[in-house]
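Reference record:
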Amino acid sequence: MTHDPRRVILVTGAAGNLGRATLACLAQEGATLVAVDRMGDAASLLPPDLPDATAHLALPGLDLLDAASCEAGIARVMARFGRLDGVAHTVGGFAMQPLTEAGPTEWEAMFRLNLLSTLNIFRAAIAAMRPAGRGSLCAVGALAALKAPAEMGAYAASKGAVLRLVESYAEELRGTGLRVNAVLPGTMDTPQNRAAMPGAEPGAWVRPEEVARLIAFLLSDAAGALTGALVPAAGRN
């Protein structure tokens, strides 16, 4: 698989499990990285073993729930590099609650974390990428968006909305050189999930590194024929 070493790829959720794995995978491919997270500081967001960290950009404190903050962040990327070739949006939220208990506050929280964050960063990025006539964006959905499990109504609905957003963007951008796809992980093998489900078998779960490789593929030229794809990553369940 060949890659343009000048590619500038923005990864949201850089401090999270999937964000870190995605940055590491893209770094191995020689991409120029833009690490975005609301938490942390510039020194902590980029992979520690980069040969030249100054060639990359960290944007701590970016609020993906605020459209203006996303636009300002993308403007900094363009001012620094003059291009943006890809976006891996790994930010999201998860909650379990019976529908009889989940009220408007819980539903709104899921839609803000999962749908609004995707909409804000994609809108800002697409506006910057479109004049160049090239680029790829990848969202993170969930297998639960295809069939909602019990007590995950708000989460599954919000992730389902992300998939519809991806499909709509893909259709609207056909012929522009921009592609929009999504990966749909099952339960990921993270320290948080192991602590929350001590009786489960994590060997059956999908690893963040595996999802990261799918994201990197969807962002690459090798996936140039794919747009509007919803790629499941079910692990070994």
